[in-house]
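WARN no homologs supplied; continuing
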Amino acid sequence: MPTKTTPPQMTARERLLARQRPTLKMTICDDLQVKTDLDIARFELRKAKSAATDDPKNPNLTAAVAAAEQNVQIAQEAFDAAAIILRFEALPRPAFEELKKKHPPTEAQAEEGTALNFETLAPELIAAASSTASLSTTPARSSTPGARVNRSPCSTPPGTYSSPSARTWEKTDRG
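OK structure emitted
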């Protein structure tokens, strides 16, 4: 019986170098109504499925699940049409190191011990890592003169909710 020959094993370094670089997908939708409609449709679908699970022989509940699924599909299509999808891929180390060299700290930043000028590096790093065509390296500006641009990607103002279930949670949490 012939023996199978196995290819030589890769070293740890070779496996690390062969890995695909991490990627991140970021979806932006500025249309609050479209986002809310999708959240509500998903919430209503969960409610309909829960009710149908409790009473599986009820044909009205089965129809309600089908209608809720259709509403989610419609809301998802509207969200997809309004949303902008950005994709980012980690830079190879040499490219990242070269980019860092181009953005030394200012004198004030150097005195504080900062190794880079993050204000000038950030836009170019985002543009270099983006697989989305034609991202600008120009800083974002508010359309309202004198307004402050929120640079935090994860901030949610107090009193805002990401979904109907979050609203339910807060209402029940507070009594």
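Confidence is low (pLDDT under 50) at residues 139-175.
OK
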